[in-house]
């Protein structure tokens, strides 16, 4: 059992180190492009989800709609995004990432992605399936506020506080 506990601790530590490294590298990449941390997070959300409404960006980030408008204004002035009316509902506006600007941010972040790609290419289908399932469970276990979702988790079940 101690071996399994040690592996769990090693994985937990590695994930935390990875998150810290990604945050630090993203900060450097963002600074190179004249972006703030919130700007970069918005662009990442648009990259992951595609065009979003300001209201959805507010939900995903926890920022007020006024703050979201300020970030969108800043990104639009810098040429990273544009606003377009939603074809289905002309009252709605969608924030659209600019492909060239997104490519600049991707290029500034390329080193960690290259390392990831190299590591993934060394894995077989069975290992990739385990990794994909593991990471998917982590992502799905988070609510939009970044807290662990679901009262059925082992931490929640043990009585450990999982939210604020």
What are the defining features of this structure?
164 residues, mainly alpha, two-stranded antiparallel sheet, 8 helices, 65% helix
Task: Give an account of the 3D structure.
This protein has 164 residues and is mainly α. It has a domain at 109-143. It is 65% helix and 6% strand. The chain has eight helices and two strands; from the N terminus they run ααααββαααα. It has helices at 2-32, 37-49, 54-61, 65-77, 99-108, 110-121, 125-140, 154-157, and strands spanning 81-85, 93-97. It has a two-stranded antiparallel sheet. A hairpin with a 7-residue loop joins strand 1 and strand 2. Helix 3 crosses helix 4. The chain is elongated, with a radius of gyration of 19 Å. Mean pLDDT is 83; it is low at 150-164.
**CA-based shape:** elongated
Q: Per DSSP, what share of the residues sits in E-state strands of 2 or more residues?
A: 5-15%
Distance from first to last alpha carbon: 31 Å
Q: Give the helix/strand class.
A: mainly alpha
Got a strand count? 2
Element string (H = helix, E = strand): HHHHEEHHHH
Number of helices: 8
Helix content: 55-70%
Computed over alpha carbons, the radius of gyration is 19 Å
Write out the strand line-up for the largest beta sheet, numbering strands in chain order: 1-2
Low-confidence sequence ranges:
150-164
Report the average pLDDT across residues: 83
Question: Quick one: biggest sheet?
Answer: 2 strands, antiparallel
